[in-house]
Amino acid sequence: MANSEDNRPFKEKYRIYIYPVVLAWIVTMLVRPVISDGNAMLPGIQDGQVIIVAKHTYTTVRGTPEFQQVVAFREDFLEEGEKGENTIRRVIGLPGDKIEIKDGKVFRNDEVLEEDYIIGDTEGDVGPMFIGEDEVFVLGDNREESVDSRDSRVGPLKMEMIRGSCAITVWPINQIGRIK
């Protein structure tokens, strides 16, 4: 009877198992799937969509998110409402910016923002306020449904609360695409 002992080196013998585990570990260090909850980011992000978030650590030293970038927070920034409702918003104000909302218009550094991605009216007057060195001012795209930095209970948010930038939608399949 033939000897069936496998004499191949360990790496060669088990690479079919090692490579997928290492790849999965690397991927989870760089990205994270998040399920959108609520209507605050309509029309761009629908309730229940699965979004891939590219993990970033934003600080005054490591850099800030980009203006008008959609970001996901580590946890709800407001305890009220359903869990997960207050985790994805668009960055409107960066450190040092002057933000003002009046007459339904958003002003950043005294210039009116052109916001073709929103629905609803931007209600409430805010500011003028200056965004702190380690803060961002965020708004939802569905202005009438969103709880965001306009609310006195929220205000500008610390950059350390941001998990990362929302990169692409992966579910449902017919809505796969880059987040704008």
Automatic annotation (TrEMBL):
Q: Which Gene3D superfamilies did the record assign? A: Umud Fragment, subunit A
Instruction: Determine the domain of life of the protein's source.
Output: Bacteria
According to its UniProt record, what is one Pfam family this protein matches?
Answer: Peptidase_S26
Compartments annotated for it: namely: Cell membrane; Membrane
User: Which Enzyme Commission numbers does its entry carry?
Assistant: 3.4.21.89
Give the family this protein belongs to, as stated in its UniProt record. Belongs to the peptidase S26 family.
Q: Which NCBIfam families match?
A: sigpep_I_bact (TIGR02227)
Annotated protein name in UniProt: Signal peptidase I
- Which gene specifies this protein's sequence? lepB
